[in-house]
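Review box. Two proteins, two foldings.
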Amino acid sequence: MIAIVLTLLVALVTTIYYYSMVKYSFWKKHNIPYIEPHLPYGNIKGVGRILHSSQLTHTFYKQLKGSGPFAGIYLFTKPVILALDLEFVKTILIKDFNYFQDRGLYFNERDDPISAHLFSVDFARWKVLRAKLTPTFTSGRMKFMFQTIVDVADNFQKCLAGMVDGNENFELKDVLSRFTTDVIGTCAFGINCNSLTDPNAEFRTMGKRVFDHGSTSGMLKHFFKSAFKHLAITLRMRAVEKDVSTFFLGIVKETVEYREKNNIKRSDFMDLLIQLKNHGTLDGADVGKLSLNEIAAQAFVFFIAGFETASTTLSFILYELSINKDLQERARQEIHTVLAKHDGQFTYEAMMSMNYLGQCIHESLRKYPPGNLIRTNVNKEYPIPGTDIVMPKESLVIVPVYAIHHDTDYYTNPDEYNPDRFEPEEVKKRHPQTFMPFGDGPRNCAGVRFGMMQIRIGLVTLLKNFEFSLCDRTIRPIRFAPGNLVLSIEHDLWLNVKNIAN
């Protein structure tokens, strides 16, 4: 009996080995430069444990750049195109978008309804949802939401002033995430999360768990679902943990029922979603109705897209402005100058005219792009231009945004924080695909305006009222959290914070 088991085991291992070797010959067979893979991970060993995905793709990019418009890597046994040339990037994201309409992200609507949101669904669903949701992110809609965010920011300023009173050194990463949690909770769900006053508020706890895969096994599960989507669905694997999904579904249902019962109208994202649910119209345009589950999924993606990315961006900006005090003062002076022109009133128009502040944000998004790579899926066989390769349906393509943002061919001294890179004349000199923090092409981030507005309001509030500098507890250089999907700081962010409000 033991001999039979051992024979079967050897046969299974041998079969897996030879299957993998056949898979791993894909790029070599087509004479395409590639990174040598290793069983069972392919080229992702160490990601989530000692390396963030941005660091790994950056290493591959530097090794392979110049060898052609793209090169090959492996996600487990799945061949993956790694884009190396900006024109090739433009081709797959824009020119040949009809071949790359899906993101290839894992979602499982049957077992996990809130995973079927705008960012993850396939093209057919995305096209319908995008048409319905695009009107909710116009500049006019942003103006309606502006004061709601300012009110949260005012509360943030008061809370932070009380926290730093008598404490020169202060940990900022936590309080920044509480601020953005309250903003998104208010705008997307219409509820007061109270995370600024209660660090352990359930809304914030659940939000943190969406992003933190924590362990190596958690990150490997994420990659497994990406590489073997159909198998993962068959195994009924969830994209979001059950209790997290149940929490957000419950919050949306309660909010919708309460507003409908009491005829409550607010200038926020949830109000717009309820309009779509009940009438299928926005501003007189008939765009079709949304189901309650669809509302929950869109509110959820609005939350995950705006909570972590905004707080990490603010963290990185404050860190860099603490190192570069002259740049911090320049941004602060612009704030005072613009506000003086608007009779001391912080309005939407005043915010949008703070050009240098915008440059500071863009430079942070260049150096530390929260979405450090763009992934897209081949939705039908794609004959790669200039080659004899036809990429099979459901092949994966990765655009290494972090690596491109740190390429010395496009940015001199890329590790230096220099907002002047984003002066209008400098931007015109660069290829459009040298800066892609929000993606590019038809499937770029729909909520760019909201995300930038949230960051701008937060930064104005902070720089107007506080001064930031390095302290003995500041960790330099920054280390990235390897287990987070969003590029974020692994450790606490300690800075010296001085209250300078009049």
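Next protein.
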Amino acid sequence: NGWANRDLIGFYERYVRTVFTRYKDKVNYWLTFNEINSVLHAPFMSGGIATPVEELSKQDLYQAVHHELVASALATKIGHEINPDFKIGCMVLAMPTYPMTPKPEDVLAAHAFENQNYLFSDIHARGKYPAYMNRFFKENGIKIQFAPGDKVLMAEHTVDFISFSYYMSVVAAHDPESYSSGRGNVLGGLQNPYLTASEWGWQVDPIGLRLVLNAFYDRYQLPLFIVENGLGAKDVLVDGPDGPTVEDDYRIDYLKRHLQQVGEAIEDGVELWGYTTWGCIDLVSASTAQMSKRYGFIYVDRNDDGTGTLARYKKKSFDWYKEVIATNGGKLYED
């Protein structure tokens, strides 16, 4: 039953020891879990928990979360022992949450939604459960079972940096049934009337990335790393002067506006170690199991039904992003 079973901590320990030892002289930056907070919304995909969602109790779900967080702290401990120069971070799915209105109840709803995600980064960075979870656990009949040594392990082996994925923001309200849902949003939420959306309903919010960067840095004073950010779209292959290509100006616009806000956050004082897009090459989308939901700078001739030659072609965004790197962001401010 995946991370609902504490035995996975031991299996994970053996795995990380193997990988850290093998790559101790080649890899310096490590993330213990990918989008660890997504287990609350996709317990099977993210946590291997086979119990059907409708049958999975909050007790078992949050106990699984505890097992993951203990395993993450153990991995951080092991990594630093194998190579003290390792930089080990957590990785969360970041999703800033706006209140639908200035109504205090809506603001409180947004605060509560964000706390679901802050739980994970709070424990990774501060080494203990945040006080705001006490009431949540009490009201939902949750009693986390700590094994001997769990609290000390989590307290003494916090992360060196915070990394996250960012694709969208969401909106929360005290009475969500009164509003349109945010179709396609990974973690739910309501539709923001001030934002446009991708073809899959993910609302595009570049300023939200600046807000996330500032919020994380203000909260933890730890270096940050954006490890996923990108646009899934239905690309069309066309004939170009140098062969087949994709005129993906929409992807260039998306990345340009987001990276400009990254620059603003750096000016705000945020310490940012890096930025990597999702992704460099087209692949099957994890969220929809579609090849047609493309993110890459490189087009891969493959269709949802499995047909295609797998030939690869550079999209327009390929050379654009290459210039962004070469000019250290200067390209972002050209007309």
